[in-house]
């Protein structure tokens, strides 16, 4: 447990940037999640380094979030310190074919800069509501591409408070995974390599992707995108639908009638409701098809 002394120390180090008992539902796309003991939004990388070093010195657990669009936080909330990497760490710069973006920059913002500069590569990401940090850690992808094909190198901050770099080849990217999911480090910045492409073509491709999402995803309700990874050669949505679970509702959580790999929050769904649907989907799909579904979302928090 982080005690009130640690909270006071952090408030002195980062005035106006530290809150206690912040409801995590305000920071997740599912609009679900209990309080975080200490919640910090650093104003830049120096403040980020300060809070990380302080947590290390005082041995308080620290968890990093971006836009919370791939997260299920339980009602028990999060012990220790939650650091939100947001728009204050959101600088985007370009040089030739290179785009450098801080971890808190929205993927949509990076894609817009790329489009305006006639740099191709980020079209696939249209409609993914994450930050650069979350996208790199998750190796976010869609439409046959993923961010790993653009990443050149990443600037990280260790939980001891030291900056270091990693090249693409050392990040072990895979389908919705990277070594950064198990490495105790924070993504601070990423450098991407794009290619020249006609602006009109980029715009048209992004519009096409966005339109398809509007038609095939339940964007009118809070959700966290795909709950499960697609098993090799198949789609989790197809399997869940074929198992007869489309539309199934527990409390205010529902397996979407539009896309069965999405679980939507109809109003006051709890993490427990979502997790019950997750378990049901897993059991049914295993029973019907012998396929073990793997979670794509990250579940965090106390019971
Ligand atoms: C409507 C909708 C559509 C979606 N479509 C897609 C899609 O097509 N493809 C896809 O891949 N995903 C999709 N997602 C899921 C999600 O947007 C992506 O996984 C995104 O990359 C997560 O970014 P985030 O900033 O929200 O990360 P968060 O959800 O905040 O965090 C995700 C994980 O990354 C870690 N993390 C976040 N930032 C950092 C950092 N700076 N340093 C270290 N660790 C960090 C967190 O600890 C957590 O483990 C969708 C989600 C929604 C709601």
TrEMBL record:
Subcellular locations according to the entry: Cytoplasm
Cofactor(s) recorded in Swiss-Prot or TrEMBL: FAD
Any one of the GO BP annotations: cell wall organization
Residue ranges constituting the FAD-binding PCMH-type domain according to the UniProt record: 31-213
Reactions catalysed, as given in the entry: UDP-N-acetyl-alpha-D-muramate + NADP(+) = UDP-N-acetyl-3-O-(1-carboxyvinyl)-alpha-D-glucosamine + NADPH + H(+)
Protein keywords: Cell cycle, Cell division, Cell shape, Cell wall biogenesis/degradation, Cytoplasm, FAD, Flavoprotein, NADP, Oxidoreductase, Peptidoglycan synthesis
Molecular-function GO terms, alphabetical: FAD binding; UDP-N-acetylmuramate dehydrogenase activity
Any GO CC annotation of this UniProt entry: cytosol
EC number from the UniProt entry: 1.3.1.98
Entry-linked InterPro entries: FAD-bd_PCMH (IPR016166), FAD-bd_PCMH-like_sf (IPR036318), FAD-bd_PCMH_sub1 (IPR016167), FAD-bd_PCMH_sub2 (IPR016169), MurB (IPR003170), MurB_C (IPR011601), MurB_C_sf (IPR036635), Oxid_FAD_bind_N (IPR006094)
Pfam families, alphabetized: FAD_binding_4, MurB_C
Presence of the UniProt keyword Oxidoreductase in the record: yes
Pathway it works in: Cell wall biogenesis; peptidoglycan biosynthesis
Function: Cell wall formation.
NCBIfam families registered for this protein in UniProt: murB, PRK13905.1
Name of this protein: UDP-N-acetylmuramate dehydrogenase
Originating species: anaerobic digester metagenome
Source species taxonomy: unclassified sequences, metagenomes, ecological metagenomes
């Amino acid at each position: 447990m982080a005690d009130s002394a640690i909270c006071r120390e952090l408030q002195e180090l980062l005035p106006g940037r530290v809150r206690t008992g912040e409801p995590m539902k305000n920071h997740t796309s599912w609009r679900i999640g209990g309080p975080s003991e200490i919640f910090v939004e650093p104003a830049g990388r120096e403040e980020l380094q300060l809070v990380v070093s302080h947590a290390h010195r005082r041995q308080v657990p620290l968890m990093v979030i971006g836009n919370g669009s791939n997260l299920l936080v339980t009602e028990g909330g999060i012990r220790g310190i939650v650091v939100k990497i947001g728009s204050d760490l959101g600088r985007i710069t370009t040089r030739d074919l290179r785009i450098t973006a801080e971890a808190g920059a929205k993927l949509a913002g990076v894609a817009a800069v790329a489009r305006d500069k006639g740099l191709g590569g980020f079209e696939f990401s249209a409609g993914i509501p994450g930050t650069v940090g979350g996208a790199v850690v998750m190796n976010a992808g869609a439409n046959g591409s993923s961010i790993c094909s653009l990443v050149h190198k990443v600037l990280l901050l260790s939980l001891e408070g030291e900056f270091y770099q990693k090249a693409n080849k050392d990040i072990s990217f895979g389908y919705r995974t990277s070594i950064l999911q198990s490495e105790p480090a924070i993504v601070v910045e990423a450098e991407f390599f794009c290619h020249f492409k006609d602006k009109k073509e980029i715009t048209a491709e992004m519009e096409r992707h966005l339109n398809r999402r509007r038609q095939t995803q339940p964007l009118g309700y809070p959700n966290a995108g795909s709950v499960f990874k697609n098993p090799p050669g198949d789609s989790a949505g197809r399997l869940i639908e074929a198992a007869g679970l489309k539309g199934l509702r527990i409390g205010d959580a529902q397996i979407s009638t539009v896309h069965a790999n999405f679980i939507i929050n109809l109003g006051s769904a709890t993490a427990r409701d979502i997790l019950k649907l997750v378990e049901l989907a897993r059991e049914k799909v295993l029973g019907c098809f012998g396929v073990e579904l793997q979670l794509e979302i990250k579940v965090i928090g106390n019971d």
